[in-house]
Each structure stands twice: as structure tokens, then as C-alpha cells.
């Protein structure tokens, strides 16, 4: 066993000892109350989408709560877009930021998909991109699987020698444009397969020991989540191996990440979905030109964008600390580092010493 794998096992085990207390639930009729709408064109990924204001999203029926109490966030599928124009869509960002020591869970019934469609559920620090970015859900066009990633400044890497269910990408330097990608291997993580299976849940643990992401298709959601409500604490001890494991041994989380705001957005084409060589992998037959914008964005919105929507049951955020939303300035919610009297600390110290002794003697 390598020293890195041994240390990874220690930290992952310790991280699962902790139960989390609920900070906030975004759900039902008040889902949109603590989100900001972007209100501008997509100047980040150069997509052919205009992310509208809240009033525009409401009046155009692009962001609303349906009769089942689910939040719907969608691309305009009713407008005939003329050449040179963008298609309206939505990007929303939480007003609160969640610090190291927090846990985020999103329950979805439907994920946007289709040629030109680029949805994401992700997070970023206040001085983006210098304070880190975590991509929890991200895929394009007619892909059939989700991709997870982190993006940082130079110095953070991702080792393939970690315990995770996903497959590490070819780039291990998280400061490069693609970031450190982990490809989902479990079925039904994207496209029509996701909703056909009843949707699913993602959980992200943002911890000093690392960033860990889990995905469960609806039939596999653990009881700790499926039986939870809007006031429940969260026990993650039975969640098993994460699907993406960004262990802190090769990326100091406290150095490369600060408190994160959560984002849901849908853009079109742009610097990933619209690259011709990538677009034509799954959408070569989408139109006569082989150009993402020409074949998809221009013209009628239906049926091309009929599946370009999020259906969200809830987003819940949790913390290891007892601090509430009002304890941090600038709406940053403290997840907190483990308190000094936490019994985990001496356990961690003892294990670390044991590992160093074993390593020095060539036993690891």
C-alpha cells in the first residue's frame, strides 16, 4: 500500500465520522428567495445564451416552482431566434457562501440535455478563479455521463492513486483549463437515462481533508438522504466510496479554496459544447451545417430545447459547526474547522505519527 493511499484511507474514514447539521434548504415556494439571477450574456464560457434577470425569467416562464413544488430552471423553447441573437436561459447563484466544513446535497428529477445544451451545478470562491471552483454536475450535448472537476491556481494536483468510483482524466494539474476531471462511471448520471431512472442525488463534502463527491441514481439513494427532511441532520458514514476524491495530500484545500457560492446554470454551445470537433461527436446529425449555433440556437426552440431544463426537488446545505447564517460577514456561512476538543484530532495525530514511523521504516 502506498503512503498516499494509506493516508487517503485515514482521512476519508475520519471525514465520515462527522454528522452534519442543516444550515439551509432551498425548496418549494421559497426556492428562489436566496439566489441571485445573473442578468447578462454568458461572458464566462462564451455561450450563445443570455442569462436573464429574475423578473425576465419569471415573466418568460424560465424559472418557477411547479405544482409538485419543484423548482424549474430552463432554456427558452418558445422563441424563434433570428441569426445573430442569443437564446434566453437562466443562471442563479446563492447569496450565501459555504466554507470548508460544509456539505451540499442536490436532489434532481431532470437534468438539461440536448445538442448545444451545457448545464452545470458548480461552486466558486469570491475572487474567481483564484479561490477555487468545484464542478459537481457538468456535461454537454448528447453525452450519457456526468463529469466532475476542480479548478485551482497552480500547485494543486489530483492523483489517480485514490479511492474513488470515477475515472481520473488525463490532466492531473488542476490549474490547467480543463481542471482535474473525474468521469462518472455509474449509470444514469446524465441525459434521458437520468430522468428515466427517476432522477438522482449528488452530495459534495467540502472538507479540510479533501473534496469528495457522490452520485446516486434514484433507486440507490441511501436512507440517510431519502428519509431526511428539512430539519434533519445528515450522517454520511454509510455513503461508501466517493465517486470523485480530491484528497488534500496533493491539493491543500485551505490554500486553494475559500468559501464557495453554489451555481445552477444552462448555457448553449460556447467553449466546450460548441467546439466543432466536440459538438460533432454526438450532434453531427443535428442540422445541415455542423455548426452548433447555426443548427441549434437559431430557429424555433421546440423540440430542440424541450429537455433543456432542471427539475430540482431541493438543495440542502449542512455544516459541522453550530454556526448559523448570520455569524459570518458578507453572508459567508462558516462550516468551521474541527473544534480543538474534537476527539477526531488526537486520533488523526496518532494515525499520522504511526504512518510516519511505518514510512520511515520502509513498511509503507
UniProtKB/TrEMBL annotation:
Organism name: Paxillus involutus ATCC 200175
GO biological process: glucan catabolic process
Keyword Iron-sulfur among record annotations: no
Pfam families assigned: GH16_XgeA
Protein name: Glycoside hydrolase family 16 protein
A single GO molecular function term of this UniProt record: hydrolase activity, hydrolyzing O-glycosyl compounds
Keyword Chaperone: no
PROSITE patterns: GH16_2 (PS51762)
Record-annotated GH16 domain positions: 24-281
Secretion signal span: 1-19
Amino acid at each position: 500500500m502506498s503512503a498516499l493511499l494509506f493516508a487517503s484511507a485515514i482521512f476519508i474514514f475520519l471525514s465520515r465520522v462527522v454528522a452534519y447539521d442543516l444550515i439551509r434548504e432551498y425548496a418549494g415556494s421559497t426556492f428562489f428567495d436566496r439566489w441571485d439571477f445573473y442578468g447578462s450574456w454568458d461572458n464566462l464560457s462564451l455561450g450563445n445564451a443570455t442569462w436573464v434577470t429574475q423578473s425576465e425569467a419569471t415573466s418568460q416562464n424560465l424559472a418557477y416552482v411547479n405544482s409538485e413544488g419543484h423548482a424549474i430552471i430552463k432554456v427558452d423553447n418558445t422563441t424563434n431566434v433570428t441569426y445573430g441573437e442569443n437564446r434566453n436561459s437562466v443562471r442563479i447563484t446563492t447569496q450565501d457562501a459555504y466554507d470548508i466544513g460544509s456539505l451540499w446535497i442536490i436532489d434532481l428529477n431532470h437534468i438539461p440535455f440536448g445538442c448545444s445544451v451545457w448545464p452545470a451545478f458548480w461552486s466558486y470562491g469570491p475572487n474567481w478563479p483564484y479561490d477555487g471552483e468545484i464542478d459537481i454536475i457538468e456535461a454537454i450535448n448528447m453525452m450519457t455521463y456526468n463529469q466532475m472537476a476542480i479548478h485551482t491556481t497552480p500547485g494543486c494536483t489530483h492523483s489517480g492513486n485514490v479511492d474513488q468510483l470515477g475515472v481520473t482524466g488525463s490532466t492531473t494539474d488542476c490549474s490547467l483549463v480543463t481542471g482535474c476531471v473525474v468521469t462518472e462511471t455509474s449509470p444514469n448520471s446524465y441525459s434521458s437515462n437520468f430522468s428515466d431512472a427517476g432522477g438522482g442525488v449528488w452530495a459534495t463534502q467540502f472538507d479540510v481533508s479533501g473534496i469528495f463527491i457522490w452520485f446516486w441514481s434514484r433507486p440507490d439513494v441511501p436512507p440517510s438522504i431519502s428519509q431526511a427532511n428539512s430539519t434533519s441532520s445528515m450522517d454520511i458514514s454509510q455513503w461508501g466510496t466517493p465517486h470523485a476524491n480530491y484528497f488534500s495530500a496533493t491539493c491543500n484545500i485551505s490554500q486553494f479554496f475559500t468559501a464557495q457560492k453554489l451555481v445552477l446554470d444552462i448555457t448553449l454551445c460556447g467553449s466546450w459544447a460548441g467546439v466543432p470537433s466536440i459538438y460533432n461527436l454526438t450532434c453531427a446529425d443535428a442540422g445541415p451545417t455542423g455548426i452548433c449555433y447555426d443548427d441549434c440556437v437559431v430557429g424555433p426552440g421546440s423540440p430542440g430545447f424541450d429537455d433543456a431544463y432542471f427539475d430540482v426537488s431541493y438543495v440542502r446545505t449542512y455544516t459541522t459547526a453550530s454556526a448559523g447564517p448570520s455569524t459570518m460577514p458578507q453572508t459567508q456561512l462558516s462550516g468551521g474547522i474541527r473544534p480543538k476538543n474534537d476527539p477526531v484530532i488526537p486520533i488523526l495525530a496518532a494515525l499520522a505519527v504511526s504512518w510516519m514511523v511505518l514510512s520511515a521504516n520502509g513498511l509503507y
